[in-house]
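Possible regression after last week's pipeline update?

I re-ran a chain I had predicted before the update to compare outputs. Posting the input and the new output here so someone can diff against the archived version. Not blocking, just want to make sure nothing changed silently.
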Amino acid sequence: MVDVRRVKLPGVGVLHTFVTDDGGKVGVITHRSGSSDLITFADAEGSHEHKVSLRLDEDEAHTLAELLGGTRITESLTGLDQVPGLSIDWFPVDYDHHIAGQPLGSMTSRGLPGVTVVAVVRGESANPAPAEDFKVFPGDTLVVAGAPEKVAKAFQFFRTGEVAAKAPADSTMAPPGR
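New output (post-update):
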């Protein structure tokens, strides 16, 4: 039987990996958004094997799982289970979102200190640490890091162009949804 290791990736999802008989490694990152990344890489140091990554949508991931059959999963305890106060999340940009067609700008100058756009994923490539003048387009996915409540405010801004003001202590309004 193949031993599958499961590791929670805070703010990302879950990584499942196993080592093949020839020393290679296969992994699947299941994102909180529902998409999955199928990855393969050599496990041994000094190997010149190619690394492969393939993004699958939810239906494609289910189809691949059905084709390959079931697995046995071994829980892995790691320090990655939780990082208190940090959320890393993905914001898929749609045509009707405020940020579509706009430069990222500075999160601090937009009233969102403590939030960082770590990368913008466009198609099959990532643009890490994008500059303030990086223009965002529909279909892009923003990778955002910060305190969970600040990430939620950033998502609200990306959708509407408005930064939610602090609600009064006696307010019965629910926090903005995702």
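Follow-up from reviewer: compared with the archived run. Residues 148-160 form the longest helix (13 residues). Marking as no regression found.
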